[in-house]
Amino acid sequence: MHVYLTHPQVTIDPTVPVPQWRLSPVGVARIRDLAREPWLRRFQRIVASEEVKARESAALLAQALGVKDESAEDLHENDRASTGFLPPAEFERVANAFFASPTTSVRGWETAAAAQRRIVRAIEAVVETSPSSSTIFVGHGAVGTLFKCHYAGLPISRAQDQPAGGGNHFGFTVSPPRMLYDWRPLEKQPPEID
Fold it and tell me: Are 59 and 49 within 8 A, CB to CB?
């Protein structure tokens, strides 16, 4: 079993590139609380996106578990460099269009279809390097949703997105590729999986 976990709340700073945003105090507190949960002890690896907020989350979890945190280049969020920071209402409009038209670049963003192919390849490549290790992947909401849609056999849709606020997780297996449970907040442990 593997878990895909999205970083929790961040400090939003329009003057800083989004990939460099850091966890907010609330986000740090949520990850620290999660790091104390006994259910995490079943995981042998933590692999994060290279974005700062994901790396910070992974480092706190890895320290608690006594494992090395790793990163993988292609686990990053969908590429939105063409627009950079967008005010919340505008971001929501563009994100809705991103999911609604998966093969179209909205305002220069990476397409949802391309981001989905990238995240699926990246996660499967990490698992392939150590197939018997249960891994926590620490990443982002949009690409996590795209991965989930692929593994659940669903069309790309924002209806499958994580609950608002970030800091959620879902479980899956790669061999065979399937979803084990849907989005849950960090504070809620996975169901018992046979």
Answer: no
Q: 50-82: per-residue pLDDT in tens?
A: 999 999 999 999 999 999 999 999 999 999 999
Write the pLDDT tens digit of every residue in 99-142: 999 999 999 999 999 999 999 999 999 999 999 999 999 999 99
Q: Which DSSP state fits 65?
A: H
- Cα separation, 169 vs 93, in Å, equals 24
| Residue 20 C-alpha from the chain's centroid | 16
User: Could you tell me the domains of the chain?
Assistant: 2-77+118-185 (3.40.50.1240)
DSSP 4-48: EEE---B---TTS-GGG--B-HHHHHHHHHHHT-GGGGG--EEEE
SS3 75: helix
Among positive and negative, which fits the CA dihedral 95, 97, 98, 99?
positive
- Collapsing DSSP to helix, strand or coil, 71 comes out as strand
Amino acid, single-letter form, for residue 93? R
Question: Which amino acid is located at 186 in the chain?
Answer: L
